[in-house]
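Person: At home tonight, work slowly through the protein below, taking as long as you need, and write a paragraph about the fold.
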Amino acid sequence: MKGAAIGVVLHPRRNSREHVDRIVAWAGRHGMEVRTLEEATDLVPSSVKTVPDEDLAIDAGLVIGLGGDGTILRALKAATAHEVPVLGVNLGRLAFLAEVALDELADALDRIDRGEHWLEERAVMTVSGTCFPMEITSFNDSALSRIPGHGPAALAVEVEEEIFARYTADALVIATPTGSTAYSFAAGGPIVSPRHRGLLVTPVAPHAAFDRAVFLHPDERLRVHVLDRSAPLLLEADGQRVAELREGDCIEFSLSPRPARILRLHAQGFYERARRKLQIADSSELAPQ
């Protein structure tokens, strides 16, 4: 594996010391340093270098996320800017982004040594708006949600400079294909293969006859306008607060030209994984005997 370092992102409330020690030993055999984030100083041995988020993946060959989907999303955020792949290790319950369970970590590192892995690219969403100065990166989804106690969200969805639909709803979710199994799915949206590129627009509890999700081509320009009669809204990206929105604000969503890279080890397909993790059951009359 190329690179001078291994980055590790840890779940802040789980004891991962034994597994960090294993990663340190493996990295040492390859002449690579191990880094983690500054906030994790008390969770790692002194041989692990602590750095700011933006330095974690510089010259790294791999970033490992030890935790649930939130931890792995943070690893992706640190790694993707430097085009470094991420290995997700599941310490949680669902962890759709995890490739291996915790007890499989040692075998996973051996398989990486033997070259028995490949990289899978995932679409990354960028979010910009009139009410915040920076461009936000999102790997799963962004949500515009009403602030309770102020009525519904009132939003206009513009695609390619034309208004497609106006919604009053509890929220509007903009998801990548990877994020189609998260909030969008809970709101009734479809499952989309993570190999796709495009954005999925799903209303949450809309007060209208049209309540379907829409999947956009990756080159189509998407804007969401906050209408005059809307309640104040909260914009979140991958579950993290970005900004409060008011009437007249406009948010633009697009796909980044730089994909995220997930390190894969198992031939298990996406649909088998979705079936297992989402506990999809057959109709009773069609279930295998």
